[in-house]
Amino acid sequence: MSEYEIPFFNSADPDVRLFPRLCGENIAVTLYGDDSYPPYSFLNKGKIEGIYPHIMQQVAERIEGYDIKITLLPWKRALRLAKKGQIFAVFPPYYLPDRRPYFSEYSVPILPEETIAYCAKSILIPRVPAGPRLLRPDNRQQPRL
Length: 145
What we know:
By secondary structure, the chain is of the alpha/beta class. It folds into 2 domains: 2-91, D-Maltodextrin-Binding Protein, domain 2, CATH 3.40.190.10; 115-145, no CATH class. The protein contains 4 helices and 7 strands, in the order βααββββαβαβ. The longest helix is centred in the middle third of the chain and has 10 residues, at 51-60. The chain is globular. It starts with a strand and ends in a 54-residue tail after the last strand.
């Protein structure tokens, strides 16, 4: 197996990118995910767990010609390394092309994801036209839900 150094072979020429494959060797690729995003991706006592790594592993097993490894990192580190071109792929990068122009291509979403916040009535102020707001003990500007 050959190690495929993505920054070195960062080329649009498919013949250059596929060189290890043309030699009959699988291409080693590491996919990086968030290590602290349960239940989607997280480390549990050093073990990779979560819905996204599970799906990515299932996909990786079906792709021929590649040896795909999944590694989880702190999210900000993964984004920083991706921005520097030091890692190949990060999941799940939300589609934010204006904030993350260093991601040149996006795949289809892994899953549709919906975020919901639940709060006890005791921490909400009455509904106003802009919607409910959280009460903060320090009386600073209150975030909106």
